[in-house]
What does this fold into?
Amino acid sequence: MARAAVALDGLSVGDALGETCFRDHNWEALQEDPRATTRGPWPFTDDTVMALGIYEVLYECGTIDQDRLARVFAARYAAQPWRGYGAGAHRLLKQLGGDVYWGTAAELVFPGGSYGNGSAMRIAPLAGYFAEDDYTTIAHQARLSAGVTHAHPEGLAGAVATAVAGAYAWRNRDRRADPQVKRDLFDEVLAHLPRGDVMRGVEHAALLDFGLSIETVVPLIGNGRGITCQDTVPFCLWVAANHLDDYQTALVRTIRGGGDIDTNAAVVGGIVALATGRAGIPKDWLDDREQLVIE
Ligand SMILES: [Mg+2]
It folds into this structure.
């Protein structure tokens, strides 16, 4: 649970800071002086609320109990529906609180399953929790957590890719500045992905030199503008691997990429915090994020 909490801090600071960049001066501040951001509290969004749900279920059950997770997501949504959920998520989470079985509700709202990036945005606490288990277990638990709301194969793959990357970050934290360790993150992720568009995107990201500018990389592998796993996860993994030893730089460059900024920053922040530890997150940013209430 301590590792899961570090991941949750990394994720939620990214989410909250990223969200401010849609509407205040933090966008400019981050490009010039990352320590000159506006003072908080920066409210977190749906990414953090759902990550808290995963954290809660792992605390109570020690595994992803899908029935329990569906109820927790629904309860947290009902308490704070204004947290910035997408349109489809609104429709689904309302139904998860009722009598309809979650699998039936999800199929009604997203026939064939959702491949939105929501499966990846919330998963860092799970990566932390299972970081010392084998990667097969991590991938299995990731699929369970995604399956409640994102049953499409690409939705599952986005969760698996992000969870494996987070666990890899933890396992390699003592060598996080080693260029080969950074590069090898892609191989570990790819070893656990099914064939598909997320896999092809990660393969593409793995070929891109770490010296490239964000402006060069985004047109090649996306930035979450489509709010899908396919156009979110490859970009996030590229930034996280590139800056596995530097949380602040990872977040500044993620935000520079635009697109689904809060979710991109949540994904990258969750992974990189597992490598740097909580000490890697700028203290001001932790203080400025709306306080997390972990029950
Ligand atoms: Mg959000």
User: Anything to note?
Assistant: The chain is about 65% helix and 0% strand. Residues 45-47, 84, 262-263 surround magnesium ion (CB under 6 Å). Residues 2-288 form a domain with the ADP-ribosylglycohydrolase fold fold (CATH 1.10.4080.10). The mean pLDDT is 96.
